[in-house]
Specification:
The protein has one helix at residues 38-41; strands spanning 7-11, 22-24, 29-32, 47-50, 54-57, 61-63, 67-68, 73-74, 77-88, 92-94, 97-106, 113-115, 120-122, 130-131, 143-149, 154-155, 161-164, 170-177, 194-199, 203-211, 227-232, 243-247, 250-252, 257-265, 271-276. The chain is built from 1 helix and 25 strands. β16 (154-155) and β17 form a beta hairpin.
Length: 294
């Protein structure tokens, strides 16, 4: 029975205590570099993993394991692989923090990370980020959270959608999908990041700042043409034909941000992404019918 201050370092080996069973208690921490994750580190016939314990992954995978009393739930989730990716073996709810110490976290298809009401994504950078190497089913393969949002909530859970000049939206679900949407609206494609936001109460004319990493650009340019926002009322994030040009107020290629200050955040208009648009504008200096004045 591993108590609240205990740390087990499973490494690439296994812990065997078949006569007594194995219990990871609330507040305890297990660290494993086993290639198959937590389950591969503990070979007891009886294994109890607390949903209030902390789990650090230094190997290639989390594996699949059961937590109690709340299934598929952990307190702190730490990614600490020296090089390469840690692949999710199942979906998780994280009630503490998801901390990116080293290495990437690969959602590995349709697995999801749900951050609890006070949880956040910590220390994500371009070299240790959330990614997805396997095409997920629609509506899956995300990191997200649901919580009550007051006025101008900022970068909720550090997911990368920074919201300001907004009214209170009450219970709101925000998700980030590390995926590319194609056929926007016919032949365009997005960067490798799509956001969704579904508020209980709409907030119109809000300012949103959408963050991204250079490695997510999917061949898009940050200037000439610049990145702009597109939003969608589609049934899910993958319906490219439902995306339409929304606008852009400012771009910052150094900070990797795109800002739009007239965003209507509603239940219907829920998907947002960034791409190089095929929209074109003309400036008229004279008669519209005289091309030389355009």
């Amino acid at each position: 029975d591993m108590g609240a201050t205990s740390v087990i370092s499973g490494g690439s080996s296994t812990v065997i205590a078949a006569n007594t069973g194995f219990t990871l208690s609330s507040g305890a921490t297990i660290k494993t570099a086993n290639a198959t994750g937590v389950a591969g580190s503990i070979t007891d016939l009886t294994k109890n993993f607390s949903s209030a314990a902390n789990y650090e992954f230094q190997g290639a995978a989390t594996g699949a394991f059961t937590t109690t009393p709340t299934a598929l739930t952990v307190n702190n989730f730490i990614v600490n692989k020296t090089t390469g990716d840690v692949q999710l073996g199942q979906s998780f709810t994280v009630n503490g923090n998801l901390t990116m110490t080293s290495g990437n976290l690969d959602l590995n298809g349709s697995n999801n990370i749900t951050l609890g009401a006070t949880a956040s994504l910590q220390n994500e950078t371009s070299t240790k980020l959330i990614k997805n190497s396997v095409a997920p089913t629609a509506t899956n393969g995300f990191i997200g959270t649901t919580r009550s949002l007051g006025v101008s909530p900022g970068n909720v859970a550090n997911l990368g959608m920074d919201i300001s000049f907004a009214s209170a939206m009450d219970a709101t679900t925000i998700k980030r999908f590390p995926k590319i949407v194609t056929s926007i609206p016919t032949a365009l494609s997005s960067i490798n990041r799509v956001y969704s936001i579904q508020p209980s109460t709409a907030s119109t004319n809000s300012t949103i700042i959408l963050n991204y990493f250079d490695g997510e650009l999917n061949g898009k340019t940050e200037s000439a043409p610049s990145l702009v926002t597109y939003s969608s009322t589609g049934t899910d994030e993958t319906v490219g034909g439902s995306y339409a040009f929304t606008g852009v107020t400012a771009t910052d290629a150094t900070a990797n941000t795109v800002t739009y200050n007239a965003a209507n955040l509603t239940i219907a208009n829920k998907f947002w992404t960034v791409l190089n648009s095929d929209q074109h504008y003309t400036v008229q200096a004279g008669d519209w019918n005289t091309a030389s004045t355009w």
